[in-house]
Specification:
This protein has six helices and three strands, in the order ααααββαβα. With about 150 residues, it is an alpha+beta fold. The chain has a three-stranded mixed beta sheet with strand order 1-2-3. A hairpin with a 5-residue loop joins strand 1 and strand 2. The chain is elongated. It starts with a helix and ends with a helix. About 15% of the residues are buried.
Length: about 150
């Protein structure tokens, strides 16, 4: 019986035969045959920009007014964040005061932070003064951090 089992095993081809068989398989394979399962389709209504926008907001939250230990998102300094279909981002922001010493630096810091977000192409920052910023624009989290209750 042991001899029968040996004769039933497929014999390994020699290297030249194996290479020839691989080439033959490659030329005869159907162009639409796949070795992998199809990629799952995103759910209906899924927009990848929503995920990118979450990362944009996270990037904005890394920016701080150096005089206040709260990020500018929680301070309420960001008035608008929009992204178009080409993943270009436009941001309207303000400062706590027109005389803010970082007026020239903070918008560029925000721009650079958002440019660092994967899949974002361009970033345009508009510094706006209307409506004027006031403490009521801060989030509850910011007020707690600043003991303003």
């Amino acid at each position: 019986m042991p001899d029968e089992a040996l004769t039933q095993r497929p014999m390994a081809p020699n290297p030249a035969e194996a290479e020839a068989q691989l080439k033959a398989d490659a030329t005869t394979a159907a162009p639409d045959s796949k070795d992998f399962a199809p990629m799952p389709q995103p759910p209906e209504g899924y927009d990848p920009r929503e995920e990118i926008m979450d990362r944009v907001v996270a990037a904005i939250k890394t920016c701080y007014d150096p005089e206040i230990p709260v990020d500018i998102w929680e301070l309420g300094l960001i008035y608008r964040v929009d992204m178009d279909g080409q993943r270009n981002v436009e941001i309207d922001m303000t400062l706590t005061s027109p005389m803010c010493p970082v007026a020239g630096e903070l918008p560029e810091q925000v721009r650079q932070a958002v440019l660092g977000v994967e899949d974002v192409n361009e970033v345009k920052i508009e510094l706006v003064w209307e409506p004027p910023w006031h403490q009521g624009m801060m989030s509850e989290e910011a007020r707690l951090q600043l003991d303003m209750f």
